[in-house]
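Invent a record, attention on tokens:
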Amino acid sequence: MPDHIDGNIEGWGRVRPDLDVAAWAITQRIGRIAKHIQYQERLYEPFGLNRGGVETIFALRRAPNHKLSPTQLCDSTLATSATVTARLDKLQDEGLITRRHDTKDRRGIIVQLTPKGRDMADRIVESVVERRSSQMDVLSTDEKATLTVLLRKLLEHFEATAGDFDEEDTTEKVESTRRRTRANGQVAPSRGKRATPVVSS
């Protein structure tokens, strides 16, 4: 069944038949799917965490003995040191992690999930897996396997040519700006209006 992106692409085919827009059609669809997934971060709201917090406790839950250094968390979550520190502050305030000096290197810090944090991670991952599985039911097992291979290939290409980026750090900067704007009595820009323009998809 044709979607609205088909209409856009067909329109460009009429006015610029000299252009091969097949690749653009792919990136537009990936962009649209990404927005649907991003907007569904409200899956985390009942647990009182944002995506950055969830990524952090997930990384710790997967780690041996549920502990990592801040540097390892930066590598695992593709976040900057400042972003990871801010996330850890919030998680520690919630009683989900502890931070202590590394017994092998007093200059180092070890971050570890608390029993509360482990339970939180398990409840969230169960909720997320259930939701994502239902979303992917439209695809057969073979289609999922094929799509996984193709998306991995694309991701490797993008990261090799464009490098990694810290989306959460950008998001937190935007939210900080909105809070300062409200404090000054001005109208804060809508969060929904900071999405990437379609033209750059």
User: Anything to note?
Assistant: The radius of gyration is 21 Å. DSSP finds eight helices and three strands in the chain. The domain at 49-177 is CATH 1.10.10.10 (Arc Repressor Mutant, subunit A). Confidence is low (pLDDT under 50) at residues 173-182, 186-201.
